[in-house]
Amino acid sequence: MLYRRFWILSLLSGVEEAGCSPIELKRFNILAYLANAVAKCYGVTPLDPTVLKENDGPLYPELLWETDRLVGMGLVVVSDIVVDRSKAVRNVSYSISARGLSCESQCRSIHREFARIGDSLRSAAMAYSRNRLSLSIESLKNRDGNYADTTVANGEVVDFGDWVNANATANSIDRLSEKISLSLDSDPSVSVNIYNRYLAAFSAKGLAE
Fold first, then answer.
1. How many CB atoms lie under 10 A from the CB of residue 64?
2. Using N-to-C axis directions, what is the helix angle for 2-17 and 98-110, rounded to 10°?
3. I need a labelling partner for 55 at 20 to 30 A (CA). Which of 124, 137, 159, 180 fits?
4. Is 158 helix (H, G, I), strand (E, B) or coil?
5. Which distant-in-sequence residues (6+ apart) come within 8 Å of 82 by Cβ?
6. Measuring CA to CA, which residue among 27, 26, 143 is closest to residue 14?
7. Is the dihedral of CA 135, 136, 141, 147 positive or negative?
8. Whole-model pTM?
9. What is the rounded distance in angstroms from the CA atom of residue 19 to the CA atom of residue 15?
10. What is the distance, to the nearest Å, from the Cα of residue 110 to the centroid of all Cα atoms in its chain?
11. How far is CA 144 from the centre of its chain?
């Protein structure tokens, strides 16, 4: 539970650092999926190596539940709340609070492994944030190694490391690193950024057409 909350704070910290706070609910789910999918490239074990594939995009119910707990603790701030006629929340945006930034920083100082994981998650979040306006659900459906898998239907689980020992997204980034002559032991941020731009280019192409 605490580790999951550290993941959330690190991701939102990266979004904040990129100057892209707050992040809307659907985009937050996309970010969470991509962070899990590329974690292997940073030498980090994915928090959730599966995701529920929905027509509206990736969905992580547990992540959202924990995020709401962080809101209650004053570590995350909600805004742009949209409710329907039954007063059920249909949409919301999240941003990390000053207290949340301080908490994330304190966690990172506990052990260098936390600092390394935090740096990796921030990097993944910033790579997504730079392309968030173009990187859509359609981008994932058509270009992402894991999510575009046509053998997995909507409503089914995309497995990229739980029971199935395969992660097409991470493998694509590793191959990209090799092509641009980057050691797989070095910082993969360049390749992760290029991959996010590749995904975003699909939406940009669609808009141009």
1. 17
2. 120
3. 124
4. strand
5. 89, 90, 91, 92
6. 27
7. positive
8. 0.90
9. 6
10. 24
11. 13
